[in-house]
Automatic annotation (TrEMBL):
Designated name of the protein: MATH domain-containing protein
Lineage: Eukaryota, Viridiplantae, Streptophyta, Embryophyta, Tracheophyta
InterPro entries given in the database record: MATH/TRAF_dom, TRAF-like
Annotated ranges, domain MATH: 21-158, 180-305
CDD domains assigned to the protein according to its UniProt record, in alphabetical order: MATH (cd00121)
Length: 314
């Protein structure tokens, strides 16, 4: 068993509790996926939950918050969501407790301010939390009960003016042996289209239904200069509110003459709003006859999509 040694003077108390968190529970069924596919800053943000009349998120750094020189611990913070909608001058005093389930005993490790001081949030400070929740080595040791079969459970309680509200829960699921699905969209009589946006037929990938949206004259900051292209959920109404899909994707315009295709690729947590590029390819490059992107007024678009995981409300 890896030793659970905590800093004695880090200002954090760590009692145990038999009671689950009041406001929010996040069940992670593929922690290794979270570690591998966090943002460029190394973080993952949970869905929103309500407490004390405000909306909140948990921000995880599964490999430690590098901005605070943390490398050997998990870092977790509470973040106020939707702060831009609040008045210019606002302050919120709150008590925050973080929970981590010991799956071997059914008890929760509870992290809270050792001095029980309320923390004041304002526009210049939207987060509070713990730089060093638990050593990574101890967390990864299944005998300690916090990470078992790549699964773990975190929770949170936030008390604003001693107000309690009903909680929400979220589940992050990974897809083992995720397969890549390819879809080819043939657009004929391309120049004859008068619509601002072209949409492909729906296609399936990773248990989700998708479609490609193409703007021949560009959209957003690519309007008038670029072709814009996006991958979008075809049935967003079937997703739970706030759901995020970890999607690895490639969007490609086929060079029908030289096989030197133009493509973009990425991997990111996406919502029902879609993912892609407003500045995908310049209109000048796209329309060049020698490039083969338009041959006999026909354009071929390819999409390769792999779904690695889904975060959704329970």
């Amino acid at each position: 068993m890896a030793s659970l040694m905590f800093g004695q003077h880090d200002g954090v108390s760590r009692p145990f509790s038999d009671s689950p968190p009041t406001h929010y529970t996040l069940k992670i069924e593929a922690f290794s996926l979270l570690k591998k596919h966090s943002t460029s800053e190394g973080s993952f943000e949970s869905g929103k939950f309500d407490a004390g009349g405000y909306k909140w998120k948990l921000v995880f750094y599964p490999n430690g918050n590098k901005k605070k020189n943390v490398e050997d611990h998990i870092s977790v913070y509470l973040k106020m969501a939707g702060a831009n909608s609040l008045e210019t001058r606002w302050e919120v005093s709150a008590d925050f407790r973080l929970f981590l389930l010991d799956q071997n005993t059914g008890k929760y490790l509870v992290l809270q301010d050792a001095n029980l001081n309320k923390i004041c949030l304002h526009r210049a400070m939207l987060e509070m939390g713990f730089d060093r929740v638990i050593p990574l080595k101890a967390f990864a040791d299944a005998s300690n009960g916090y990470l078992v079969d790549d699964k773990c459970v975190f929770g949170a309680e936030v008390f604003v003016c001693k107000e309690r509200r009903a909680g929400k829960a979220e589940c992050l699921s990974g897809i083992n042996s995720a397969s890549t699905n390819k879809y080819v969209w043939k657009i004929e009589k391309f120049s004859k289209s008068k619509t601002e946006c072209l949409e492909s037929q729906p296609f399936n990938a990773g248990g989700q239904t998708w479609k490609i949206k193409l703007y021949p004259k560009g959209a957003d900051n690519g309007k008038g200069t670029h072709v814009s292209i996006y991958l979008k959920c075809a049935n967003p109404e079937k997703l739970s509110p706030g759901s995020q899909i970890l999607t690895e994707f490639t969007l490609r315009i086929v060079d029908q003459l030289n096989a030197k295709h133009f493509y973009g690729k990425g991997i990111q947590w996406s919502s029902a709003l879609g993912i892609g590029w407003s500045n995908f390819i310049t209109l000048g490059n796209f329309n060049r006859l020698d490039k083969g992107y338009l041959l006999k007024d026909t354009c071929l678009i390819e999409a390769e999509v792999t779904v690695h995981g889904i975060a959704k409300a329970l």
